[in-house]
Amino acid sequence: MSTRRPQSRRSTVFGIAAASAALALFTSACGSLTTSGSDEEVETHSIEEGFHVGLLLPELQTARYEAFDRPYFEEALENLCPNCELSYANADQDVDEQQTQAQAMLTDGVDVLVLGAVDSEAAAGTVNEASSQGVPVVAYDRLAQGGVDMYVSFDNFRVGQVQAEALLGALEQEGTAGDGQIVMINGSPTDPNAGDFKAGAHEIFEGQVEIGQEFDTPDWSPDEANSQMEGAITSLGLDEIIGVYSANDGMAAGIISALRSAGVPADELPPVTGQDAELHGIQRIVSGEQYMTVYKAIRPEAQVAAAMAVSLATGEDLEAGEHTLTEVEDADGEPVSAVLLDPVAVTEENIGDTVVSDGFYTIEEICTEDYADFEFCQEAL
């Protein structure tokens, strides 16, 4: 499989392991294809001859996209279609840059786009342009507007529920439930996933805990989360804050920094949630600074996305295999075929059974010199 990366802001080459045999999620039994978004008839291609796939990812702020999503997708596409050509670009959280990257790929003749949108509403222009050219679009991780053909992500409402359930469990375990208020620091208002996380968390928190302060955080910025937490501390007072809902691990770092700067010792920090199972987030869980994160197994998400791209390009029916093929509604109320994967809560107790056992990280990567003396590493090494 040849690979091109037009207008990419990062060109690190990752080693890619052989993909699992279980990756085959589609069948060649049927040559018909129904897409929900394309205005023009989609030209079908063959795996034997290969075709051109464009992968657009949204940002570098979160470590997962470069470290995992991109190489896993490359691996999966190579396994499914060795003769396919891949173009890749990361927009680094820039809406205009992503539109430019997409236009370049369409001009270059990609046959299918896999789009992790920076801004789902703004992405409608890209989706419409692709549709006008008969290029199907797979919405990756975020449901872009404009009439995409397929969508793969996690059950994002459930992600928020998992985070909130874990935080309430921590408060009950510490005996602080009802003794104060929590702070909610949500994700970017331009990311529809963030709205789902927030809605899921609110459903669990309602009637169970008082929310003292709540913020939406532009661009998922750890620095902005740090400032928001500083404001919450000033407004509520340290003694009143019994827990913090952080929508992801990067923001959790900024939140914890604000708490430490306010004088809270590491062993007295209130429970703080997270998401994405970033390495530094896992290490903060090991050290006791962060209570939990949400592990979203990115490899199967990337594998499903590659299978969707191949299905759309070849006209073969998609089979979800062990995953459930369902439908979701886009912003216009139109149905989109989707696979929604299950999120998993990770605390110190199940690090070994999740991110380590899945090969996401090794014990050696987690238990570096700064963390080797903590209980988890002492038992694992």
UniProtKB/TrEMBL annotation:
InterPro entries: Bact_Solute-Bind_Prot2, Peripla_BP_I, SBP_2_dom. Its main location: other. Keywords: Signal. Residues 1-31 form the signal peptide. The keyword Hydrolase does not apply. CDD domains: PBP1_ABC_xylose_binding-like (cd19995). Gene3D superfamilies: 3.40.50.2300. Residues 54-316 form the Periplasmic binding protein domain. It is found in: Cell envelope. Pfam families: Peripla_BP_4. PANTHER family: D-XYLOSE-BINDING PERIPLASMIC PROTEIN. This is D-xylose transport system substrate-binding protein. It comes from Nocardiopsis terrae.
